[in-house]
């Protein structure tokens, strides 16, 4: 072993034309952004409006943009792998690069795409749905975002500096230990995930408190929109699952950086312990990502079927049940680790049991559509596509839960196909539906239906073309994470088909990119604030929502608060409603979250590269930020005068929403 | 468009089914031993049970989306306020519970069955398997010979594979004989497999072990008992011995192009491998001494 096994062979990655190409692209992009910001004199705007913002709506938008960029990178990783696997004995990528790419693909897709995208919608929708002016801890919310951002940045830095991690996104020791994995690549994984993980945990806490303490007057728990319920279920899962990940990563980091022996083969270390800890987080993590998608579908299916959600109580109950049961299934990720028949039987049955509440949700969605009037807009299409896809994912999930059958499926392409179907068909489709649904609320612009339908069909056809052959490949004995295979196995044709499907999805993504570009250059504005005839409170205010969200906090009298209010307004349309506006108390912008997360980045980079002095600088910076915050927290808030609120409302409501609403100062 | 998609799916599904039925490359669907057969039967049973619920649900989805779509003049019933029905809810809590109950029972039963030797009246043979970076070492404690990257077994005889690793965690998988089990440093794990008829079967490492992982393939050659004995005797006479130095060379990271055979190996090698990588900290009663001969 080298003197310092964590040290990189070269500071910058060299020798690979793909990476040189990417380096050039990165430098050009950065220069382009710097030039544009300078030319347009936008630096100050960037700092005051975005980097220092504690507004949940802006934080939501930043999460959204970051995760779409990460989706691009994770998607390129996926396509590189598909090219490599499309024909037998391919030499497009060598083993070393292939291993790095599947590692970064998995890590990025789960932690830097799915997580920030759900957080984007937590931020965009939850405070508006419960009639609140912000989250419970706006400062902490900004900290969460910047921790995610700098964690993701640190992880992605491994692409050009020091080398990417290559032990799989699951990073099992001893493979990920110093003995078998030298250089800083694995440290980037550990530090990047640890830093962003702190952000995720803080988000979980923030939204639990927000939902429990900041609901509009009159809104009982059982009056909450189902998306808010799903966020609560997801956050409760985060609260218990993420600390486990933090501990697992910290112990592995101690092994690697300080010569510890928690998971090594020597001196009493036990690698199986890491695998248990990883999946105690990892399995609930799947539900953390998919529960909010369930919430989104529940909103969408009801709005676009022009009908109330069917079986609200069952929906709530099943989500909470899923959230609790998700803690009792982790060992199904390693039925083959020899835990014994009793343990395997328990985890097999507990895993299948999760299918019960999930199945109930499917029935309830179906019966929400039943006797409704279904409008197949792009948002609804993704929901229908989801049900089709997720039913199959659930079916193969139950098949995998059958422990003795899993001895055959384990680590095969059958498994690969299953979890992609659950995560794409469940979480990603749901988050796309959420994107189309709330985009008008985020930006005041509706995304193009025409381009969106192209994207939908490309994604959906591409999905089945890509992943159905992978189920079959599992039956042919193809294992995951092989970088190539020999022609006599007969895996070539199906792999080629799968690659074509992958590219269809990639083209679908380009259409979505085109939708975003069209939204900028030829925006179709939403002037009503309620383009879908929605049921919940976020549609009762203008799009995009004003800084303070609600000029006057709404009085809630039951479920579907905005639908009820609209009906009442129709009945008494002659009566003009008067809103009494008061001064509004709001949090001030602050640069501390950004600076503090930056110091986390510095410390993380220092530890990753074993530049200890840099680690110390980073940690001191973090402490300084904490002290600065403690000494300024008394001046962290301000009041918006009522007159200013009234002026803003008049300005915003010219378009039509809330016609007949009068405002006056108390 | 929707109909095209459904057509496409049906075609794809049917092709996959047909292809798998008669195509011997779908090795998992062509078991040659009792363990793989038991597992495949359970797979078919689970598919059948799940189909009972999945097919009606998908049919219902297509029907509902078609029948209740919003178009002018749609005469289908419209009940915007209808949001609850106790009987229906009991039905769809009940159906999955019933199905999972049946499947769960069958799963638990089979899980216990597979921990036993597949056949009780034939004396089993033991083979010790070590996953190395990036090759497989097989030791035959009864014959006192060793092979690398291929393994011979007598057909019709239950084989007790005892698995460990002197490298990162791997998984030992011979799809046509049965499911896999992890090979882990510091652990000795038991996996029962059996081939009913002579033949050559594909085996591979199934858990990622780093750069040379793709090369961790091996062949399982099943022969009638007499030929197997003959084969072992041949190796005993012709092949070189595996020395401690030889093992240490094997243990170094690297890929072998060919298979290797050894007429003997250092006494207690397997035991020592398990012990040096953490075996001494493990619960010995769980690892059972007969696995570590």
UniProtKB/TrEMBL annotation, chain A:
GO CC annotation, single: plasma membrane
EC number: 7.1.1.9
Pfam families, A to Z: COX1
Cellular compartment(s): Cell membrane
EC main group: translocase
UniProt keyword Cell inner membrane, yes or no: no
Domain Cytochrome oxidase subunit I profile: 41-557
Gene3D superfamilies: 1.10.287.70, Cytochrome c oxidase-like, subunit I domain (1.20.210.10)
Pathway: Energy metabolism; oxidative phosphorylation
Keyword terms, alphabetized: Cell membrane, Copper, Electron transport, Heme, Iron, Membrane, Metal-binding, Respiratory chain, Translocase, Transmembrane, Transmembrane helix, Transport
SUPFAM superfamilies: Cytochrome c oxidase subunit I-like (SSF81442)
Catalytic reactions of this protein: 4 Fe(II)-[cytochrome c] + O2 + 8 H(+)(in) = 4 Fe(III)-[cytochrome c] + 2 H2O + 4 H(+)(out)
Chief location category: membrane
Topology within the bilayer: Multi-pass membrane protein
Listed InterPro entries: Cyt_c_oxase-like_su1_dom, Cyt_c_oxase-like_su1_sf, Cyt_C_Oxase_1
Annotated TM spans: 18-38, 59-81, 101-126, 138-161, 188-214, 226-254, 286-304, 316-335, 347-367, 379-403, 415-439, 451-476, 496-521, 586-605
Record GO biological process: aerobic respiration; electron transport coupled proton transport; respiratory electron transport chain
GO MF annotations, alphabetized: cytochrome-c oxidase activity; heme binding; metal ion binding
Family of this protein: Belongs to the heme-copper respiratory oxidase family.
Name recorded for this polypeptide: Cytochrome c oxidase subunit 1
TrEMBL record, chain B:
EC number, UniProt record: 1.10.3.-
The entry's keywords: Cell membrane, Electron transport, Lipoprotein, Membrane, Oxidoreductase, Palmitate, Respiratory chain, Signal, Transmembrane, Transmembrane helix, Transport
Stated role: Catalyzes quinol oxidation with the concomitant reduction of oxygen to water. Subunit II transfers the electrons from a quinol to the binuclear center of the catalytic subunit I.
Top-level enzyme category: oxidoreductase
Subcellular location: Cell membrane
Record-linked SUPFAM superfamilies: Cupredoxins, Cytochrome c oxidase subunit II-like, transmembrane region
Gene3D superfamilies reported in the protein's UniProt record: 1.10.287.90, Cupredoxins - blue copper proteins
Cross-referenced Pfam families: COX2, COX_ARM
Catalytic activity: 2 a quinol + O2 = 2 a quinone + 2 H2O
Name this polypeptide is given: Quinol oxidase subunit 2
Species of the source: Tumebacillus flagellatus
Residue stretches making up the Cytochrome oxidase subunit II copper A binding domain: 122-234
GO-annotated molecular function: copper ion binding; cytochrome bo3 ubiquinol oxidase activity; cytochrome-c oxidase activity; oxidoreductase activity, acting on diphenols and related substances as donors, oxygen as acceptor
């Amino acid at each position: 072993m080298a003197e310092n096994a964590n040290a990189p062979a070269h500071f910058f990655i060299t020798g690979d034309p793909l990476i040189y190409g990417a380096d050039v692209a990165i430098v050009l992009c950065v220069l382009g952004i710097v030039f544009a910001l300078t030319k347009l004199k936008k630096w100050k705007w960037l700092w005051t409006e975005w980097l220092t913002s504690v507004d949940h709506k802006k934080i939501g938008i930043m999460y959204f943009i970051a995760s779409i960029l990460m989706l691009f990178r994770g998607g390129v990783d996926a396509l590189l792998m598909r090219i490599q696997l499309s024909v037998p004995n391919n030499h497009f990528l060598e083993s070393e690069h292939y291993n790095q790419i599947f590692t970064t693909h998995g890590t990025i897709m789960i932690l830097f795409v799915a997580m920030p995208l759900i957080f984007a919608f937590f931020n965009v929708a939850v405070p508006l749905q419960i009639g609140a002016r912000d989250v419970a801890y706006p400062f902490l919310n900004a900290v969460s975002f910047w921790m995610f951002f700098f964690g993701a940045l640190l992880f992605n830095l491994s692409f050009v500096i020091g080398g990417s991690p290559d032990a799989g996104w699951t990073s099992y020791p001893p493979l990920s230990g110093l003995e078998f994995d030298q250089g800083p690549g694995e440290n980037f994984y550990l530090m990047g995930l640890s830093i962003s993980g702190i952000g995720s945990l803080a988000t979980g806490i923030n939204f639990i408190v927000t939902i429990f303490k900041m609901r509009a007057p009159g809104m009982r728990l059982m009056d909450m929109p189902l998306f808010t319920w799903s966020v609560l279920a997801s956050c409760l899962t985060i609260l218990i699952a993420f600390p486990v990940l933090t501990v697992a990563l910290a112990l592995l980091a101690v092994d690697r950086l300080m010569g510890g022996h928690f998971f090594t083969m020597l001196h009493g270390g036990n690698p199986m312990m890491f695998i248990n800890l990883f999946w105690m987080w990892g399995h609930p993590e799947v539900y953390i990502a998919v529960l909010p998608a369930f919430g989104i579908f529940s909103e969408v299916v009801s709005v676009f079927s022009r009908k109330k959600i069917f079986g609200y109580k069952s929906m709530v109950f099943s989500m909470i049940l899923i959230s609790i049961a998700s803690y009792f299934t982790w060992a199904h990720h390693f039925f083959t680790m020899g835990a014994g028949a009793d343990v395997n039987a328990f985890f097999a049955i507990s895993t299948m049991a999760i299918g019960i509440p999930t199945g109930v949700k499917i029935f309830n969605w179906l019966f929400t559509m039943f006797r409704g009037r279904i409008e197949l807009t792009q948002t609804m299409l993704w929901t229908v596509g989801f049900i089709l896809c997720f039913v199959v994912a659930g079916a193969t999930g139950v098949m995998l839960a059958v422990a003795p059958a899993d001895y055959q499926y384990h680590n095969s392409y059958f498994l690969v196909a299953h979890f992609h179907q659950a995560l794409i068909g469940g979480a990603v489709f749901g988050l796309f539906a959420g994107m189309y649904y709330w985009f008008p609320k985020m930006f005041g612009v509706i995304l193009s239906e025409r381009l969106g339908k192209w994207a939908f069909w490309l994604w959906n056809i591409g999905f089945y073309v890509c992943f159905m052959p992978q189920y079959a490949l599992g039956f042919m004995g193809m294992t995951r994470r092989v970088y190539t295979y020999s022609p006599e196995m007969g895996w070539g044709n199906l792999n080629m088909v799968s690659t074509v499907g992958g590219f269809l999805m990639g083209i679908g993504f380009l259409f979505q990119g085109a939708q975003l570009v069209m939204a900028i250059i030829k925006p179709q504005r939403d002037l009503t604030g309620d383009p879908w005839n929605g049921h919940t409170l976020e549609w009762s205010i203008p799009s995009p929502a004003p800084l303070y969200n609600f000029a006057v906090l709404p009085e809630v009298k039951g479920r579907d608060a905005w639908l009820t209010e609209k009906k009442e307004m129709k009945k008494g349309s002659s009566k003009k409603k008067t809103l009494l506006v008061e001064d509004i108390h709001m949090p001030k912008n602050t640069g501390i979250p950004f600076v503090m997360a930056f110091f986390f980045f510095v410390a993380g980079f220092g530890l990753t590269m074993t530049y200890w002095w840099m680690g110390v600088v980073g940690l001191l910076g973090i402490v300084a930020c904490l002290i600065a915050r403690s000494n300024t927290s008394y001046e962290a808030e301000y009041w918006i005068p009522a007159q200013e609120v009234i002026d803003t409302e008049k300005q915003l409501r010219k378009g039509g929403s809330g016609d007949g609403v009068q405002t006056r100062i108390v | 468009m929707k109909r095209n998609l459904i057509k496409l799916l049906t075609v794809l599904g049917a092709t996959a089914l047909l292809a798998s039925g008669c195509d011997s490359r779908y090795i998992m669907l062509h078991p040659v031993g009792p363990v793989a057969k038991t597992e495949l039967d359970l797979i078919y049973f689970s598919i059948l049970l799940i189909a009972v619920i999945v097919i009606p649900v998908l049919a219902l989805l297509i029907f509902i989306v078609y029948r209740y779509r919003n178009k002018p003049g749609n005469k289908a019933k419209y009940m915007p306020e209808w949001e609850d029905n106790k009987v229906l809810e009991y039905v769809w809590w009940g159906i999955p519970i019933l199905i999972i109950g049946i499947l769960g029972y069958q799963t638990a039963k089979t899980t216990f069955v597979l921990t036993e030797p597949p056949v009780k009246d034939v004396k089993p043979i033991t083979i010790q398997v070590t996953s190395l970076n990036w090759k497989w070492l097989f030791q035959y404690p009864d014959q006192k010979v060793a092979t690398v990257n291929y393994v011979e077994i007598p057909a019709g005889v239950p084989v007790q594979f005892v698995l460990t690793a002197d490298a990162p965690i791997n998984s030992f998988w011979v799809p046509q004989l049965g499911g896999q089990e992890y090979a882990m440093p510091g652990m000795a794990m038991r996996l029962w497999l059996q081939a009913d008829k002579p033949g050559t079967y594909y085996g591979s490492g199934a858990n990622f072990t780093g750069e040379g992982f793709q090369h961790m393939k091996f062949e399982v050659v099943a022969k009638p008992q007499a030929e197997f004995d003959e084969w072992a005797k041949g190796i005993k006479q012709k092949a070189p011995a595996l020395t401690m130095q030889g093992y240490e060379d094997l243990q170094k990271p690297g890929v072998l192009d060919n298979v290797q055979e050894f007429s003997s190996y250092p006494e207690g090698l397997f035991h020592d491998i398990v012990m040096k990588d953490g075996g001494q900290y493990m619960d010995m009663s769980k690892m059972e001494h007969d696995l570590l001969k």
